[in-house]
Write a structure and sequence with these properties.
It contains 16 helices and nine strands. The structure holds S-adenosylmethionine.
């Protein structure tokens, strides 16, 4: 049956409640306490340090969206709730925990300020914006970095499968986070050397053993970046406004010989009919950063202004698209 208009807008208005239930359930780790059989809520609550009656109500709401199922005196997994487990290969838990952090929720509360002033909501919480905020809040930064890594578990194979990195001797991942993409690229291209470049706080927090062909370089991409044959910027430019993107691209261009390749990997928008997920990400950028999701023609104009020429778009099997440019 078709939804009444009033139901459509009510569902949107109350959408914060199921979202918050999902975040709380991920925060306290409910999904990890359920395996193949239903678990009585008393046992779940005891394991998570929760109140049983309240947890039942929260899980019932989620079950109404087919996330968990109430049966046989307890709660069992559905296909959707299984991806909330930490040990799921595509675990959504870190990303959902990220959406439940004060950095997201407090910014959402301030969205009206953003609409009225154009100022990112997070800048009102923290002068200097998101990266200063994360430096000031290492507990939230830890969850942010984990979320980026887990999101990449889906994006990385799609990117590595779609683009041929074999022509490059040195590949630099600029703002590469924990190096999830670069490690996979190096595994796919045995002759290549990789340089992982990110802020000192991110690089210095890396504790895992290094890849034999991976060099770590802390720094600031508004200042200087290491030289390379190919420069990857995945999910970086959408964090910044046009003026800052021009500066980042200019820094990269200074380290790029003519003919060097620039790969901008993000949800590049189609000129018309973007998906709800893509425009939601655009509003998240609006709340948290001075950035935005951009179309191919918007990116292409920014490339031109920084001494790069757009040479083509590669589609991936995921949501990412790869915009390629060459240094002129
Ligand atoms: C949204 S994350 C993307 C991480 C990774 N490329 C990915 O796709 O998962 C943006 C990255 O830019 C880094 N970053 C922000 N400001 C930076 C700066 N001034 N210099 C270098 N890296 C910076 C952040 O630390 C973060 O790792």
């Amino acid at each position: 049956m078709t939804q009444q208009p009033v139901e459509t807008v009510h569902a949107l208005a109350y959408g914060a409640y199921p979202a918050r239930c999902l975040q709380v359930v991920c925060e306290i780790g409910v999904a990890d306490r359920i395996d193949d059989e239903p678990v009585p809520v008393g046992k779940l609550a005891a394991a998570c340090g929760a109140d049983p009656g309240t947890l039942t109500r929260i899980l019932r709401l989620l079950a109404s969206f087919d996330v968990f199922e109430e049966r046989d005196g307890g709660f069992a997994h559905t296909v959707a709730s299984r991806v909330l487990r930490d040990d799921h290969p595509m675990s959504a838990r870190p990303l959902i925990r990220l959406t439940g952090l004060p950095m997201h929720l407090d910014s959402l509360t301030l969205l009206q300020h953003t609409v009225l002033t154009g100022e990112p909501a997070l800048d009102k919480l923290q002068p200097g914006g998101i990266w200063a905020y994360l430096t000031e809040h290492p507990d939230q930064a830890e969850i942010f970095n984990r979320a980026m890594t887990s999101k990449a578990a889906a994006d990385v194979p799609a990117v590595v499968g779609a683009y041929d990195f074999t022509p490059f001797g040195v590949i630099a991942d600029i703002g590469g986070g924990r190096g999830h993409l670069l490690r996979a690229v190096l595994d796919a291209v045995p002759g290549a050397e990789g340089v992982l470049f990110d802020q000192p706080s991110v690089i210095e927090a890396l504790t895992f053993p290094d890849h034999p062909r991976l060099a770590l370089r802390p720094g600031d991409f508004f200042d200087t970046v290491p030289a390379a044959d190919a420069f990857i910027l995945m999910h970086v430019l959408h964090n910044w406004g046009d003026e800052q993107v021009a500066r980042i691209l200019a820094t990269v261009r200074k380290s790029a010989a003519p003919g060097a390749t620039l790969l901008v990997i993000e949800n590049v928008l189609p000129d018309v009919h973007p998906t709800p997920a893509a425009v939601t990400m655009d509003v998240i950028m609006l709340a948290l950063t001075p950035g935005r999701e951009r179309t191919e023609s918007e990116l292409s104009a920014l490339f031109d202004g920084a001494g790069f020429r757009f040479t083509g778009m590669t589609e991936t099997s995921g949501t990412m698209r790869i915009a390629e440019a060459k240094a002129v």
